[in-house]
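Table S5 (text form). Sequence records supplied for joint modeling of the two-component complex.
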Amino acid sequence: MGNIPCETRITNAQLVDVFTGSVIENCEIYVDQGKIIDVGCHCKASAKQTIDVGGAYVTPGLIDAHVHIESSMLTPVRFARLVVPFGTTTIITDPHEIANVLGTRGIRYMMREAKRSEMTVFFMLPSCVPATPFETSGAALSSDDLADLIDEPEVLGLAELMNVPGVIAKEDDLLKKVAMTLNLGKRIDGHSPLVCGATPAYAGCGVTSDHEASTVSEVNERLSHGIRLFMREGAAAQNVEALSQTINERNARFFSLCTDDASPDDVYTNGHMNHVVRRAVENGVDPIEAIRMATINTALHFGLKNKGAVAPGFDADFVIFNDLTHWQVKQVLIAGKPVAENGSMLTPEPVIESDREVLGCVKIPMLTTEAFAIRAHSGKAHVIGLHDGDLINDHLTLEVKTDTKGFVSCDDNPSLLKLAVIERHHATGNIGLGLVKGFVKEGKRFGGAMASTIAHDSHNIVVVGDSDDDMLAAVKAIEAMQGGLVLVRNGRIVKSLTLEIAGLMTNEPAPITAVRKTQFINSAHELFHVKESMHPVMTLSFLPLAVIPHLRVTDLGLFDVDSFKHIDINVQ
Amino acid sequence: MGNIPCETRITNAQLVDVFTGSVIENCEIYVDQGKIIDVGCHCKASAKQTIDVGGAYVTPGLIDAHVHIESSMLTPVRFARLVVPFGTTTIITDPHEIANVLGTRGIRYMMREAKRSEMTVFFMLPSCVPATPFETSGAALSSDDLADLIDEPEVLGLAELMNVPGVIAKEDDLLKKVAMTLNLGKRIDGHSPLVCGATPAYAGCGVTSDHEASTVSEVNERLSHGIRLFMREGAAAQNVEALSQTINERNARFFSLCTDDASPDDVYTNGHMNHVVRRAVENGVDPIEAIRMATINTALHFGLKNKGAVAPGFDADFVIFNDLTHWQVKQVLIAGKPVAENGSMLTPEPVIESDREVLGCVKIPMLTTEAFAIRAHSGKAHVIGLHDGDLINDHLTLEVKTDTKGFVSCDDNPSLLKLAVIERHHATGNIGLGLVKGFVKEGKRFGGAMASTIAHDSHNIVVVGDSDDDMLAAVKAIEAMQGGLVLVRNGRIVKSLTLEIAGLMTNEPAPITAVRKTQFINSAHELFHVKESMHPVMTLSFLPLAVIPHLRVTDLGLFDVDSFKHIDINVQ
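The corresponding structure-token record, covering 1144 residues in total, follows.
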């Protein structure tokens, strides 16, 4: 009320007012103790210091409605430093990946680390861990496990209810998870790519958002059933171009923007939530509606009472843009303090010791090259045929050359690579084997092995190669690093990226990780001849996911997604 | 999913889809166990019975965002039967009036009764009881009292934070009420007529809605500060015409509709929430936006997860309209069952015994006519000058004729009436006296007394008259009725309306109460010559409210609102 001076006044702003949907010219914003005290053209407050933004646009801090931090390979603290300079001040994250490795211990780690970061991190609890019964995960999350977490104030609900058949079949423990979330008035996020017919059942069980829509008809069916659209533009999937045409002034309020997955190299190139907003505007969405989709719409949906608007009582998280066309972020303020300018954080990288709780997550027994022996004595094998730029694959049945004992080698079958998925959480010795076609450029040899501990959703070790010796060396390198990515040729490490935290993330800063990841991918393409159209790490990481058609390998063996059962590699 | 037949299918509907903001032609709705199972043009479900609505419009059940049930003079059960036939299936009520009489006991009574009604009733807890320290109320509600209620599932937050000076001065117990509400993630409703300058402080303390705006500038200031507008059209105030022009497609989502006060006679004439929708549309609001303001907007604001839309998982509360122009309600379904048709409930009035807890609320000591003696020995008195059609009054200083001892009689001063406010909760014998000008038509005599136990906000007995004998008789009649309205002439009751429940409501059915109230008002106008432009009951009931300018009377005496203190009637 003007009685006591505030800490900070921001002057000369063009404020994007998300409530009226208009821009307020020549606006002042008063901030004290991290909160907005007053906003307008005729404020009565006074302030100790002034930030003159020189006529720039001020928007609320951007909110990512759904993102898996782990897919950035960065810890929450490093991730925040990656994305905050691009205007993202709040995220709603689903720690699904680490939960598959470490269960509630992994989720608690993410919650602890998130509190140390500059941004506000809310959580949705992974609803389906393990993802399928056809693999061995590091942990399983029952409704009892989630009951310990669902009460936490930063937990907003249940993430990615992906088990649509489970919902429809009314699986007992899944329904318990749903009920306990709804009883607390928290939210359930959907995950239903292309399952239009099931939308009523899905909506009926309390799902009120979905980020998997990729077609216009999906959007309309979801909206009519009260399911909000989280329109996604991220490292793994880009839906903004296809979906923006469905947005109009009447339904825009039920859209939010999200990235789902972020990769540090992409973020440095394109930006983060500012890029999603830019893509929406490029595709015809009104700029203020686009900002609303990245701010107030998401805040209201999740009941974030102090986020998503520049108005009294709200947290003083702002993004300053020079224009609403290019969406270059000039400055970011969090809790009223400048934290990033012109793409960089204002503070140096902090020194952080890794939490022992999440280290040492690769436990495998002694292996020999025999582990990779594949027998197809019929001379015919089930083979995974990879697609370019698409995670769906083909289930091929191919003639293969074998030795006299029926064993298959890549030397005899130069178009094929061997694939192995090795259980790495409990040292069970489980290993699933398969053959892959289409990873390498036509007429080229891979010439070694590539291994990773990012392998959806159980994140066992996945290794591909044309040499049993190199495959073994790659797995041993992974074990030595206790997680990460490695390229091996002739028994020597060509390139590696250590992911020492749960085998999924690294404590290294984002810029270093971005460079290492780029170099790793370039090496895979240039030295190991992985097809240019194929993302080597992502392609490999989805080969064990037993819900994407048509043929997968888990640590329990080759898996036919169409018949939903494990099969032998040898065609009978 | 079509496996088991639903109870009911509604066919041939034009569904108002509040999510997409469009009308879906030829739509089907499937209902089972009170919930919507599926909605659309190509549903897979089957049903045991079919309701063909013949191409009529189907909207979600209408929600009144803010209403005081008590001002209808009806109990919650009777109130529901009054308004449900006009499409209102959910209300958010503030039991402010009964709380001033009976405190938490009164609120609990309303909660119990509400559960017995056909509609869904949510509560906002009265934040300021008593309204001022200048009167004696039946009860006071501290933050401790409210703490016992705020957890209840039907309680959505704190109502009418009307103590703006208290908010700004950071009054301790008020801030406790605010904090405990916000901590539970519940809502705080504002009440700030014309106090534009205080909006930032108001918003900053967590107020997110307000129903008192009556001008365009108030609307815009509130909206920009994140305060939603509850646009009101009720018995006591009508703001829709003035405010509708401020609504556009960008801000409509932040508007809700409410009545604030409903009178049974008005409702039978005009309707209830269907009338508010009609008024909005008549004043240029898009019909679908108007429906959203009476359904999903309010549900989302208050976090009512199953209300406000016709979509799977929502409660099966529908209104069937023949058109979106006249807003005549054809049929109302609640929880999938028809409950009203063509303006009437389908069930007969229930027999309900009144709850003893809320009876016997008029406690006064023995009075004589001396109680009404007014002395103005200076020959000059402070007099309340009533306005036509406006609750604000004038503070007049008039010459008065007195007898030799300085006592004022109405016989000697035919343009004046005596006014008395008698404490009726604790039999303290407190009585405040005043003189009133402008209640009666020019050149006519009142000729008796009128008394009421509806007297804002403490609801003491207010009595007005030109005969001390009749004033005493009126108060005695009120005591005998244990609450209500009465007109007395020559010691005999001319007309009365018993309000036996807390002195505010009656257990009689709405149609009877509507007729009695109309007859009472007509008698006041025709037989007692109250000005036609003046609502006799409402005018009387607001005379003790010590926050409306300029001169009031409470049980503690004459009160000057401008200097905010009690004054003597005699001008010194």
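Note: The first helix of chain A runs from residue 76 to 83.
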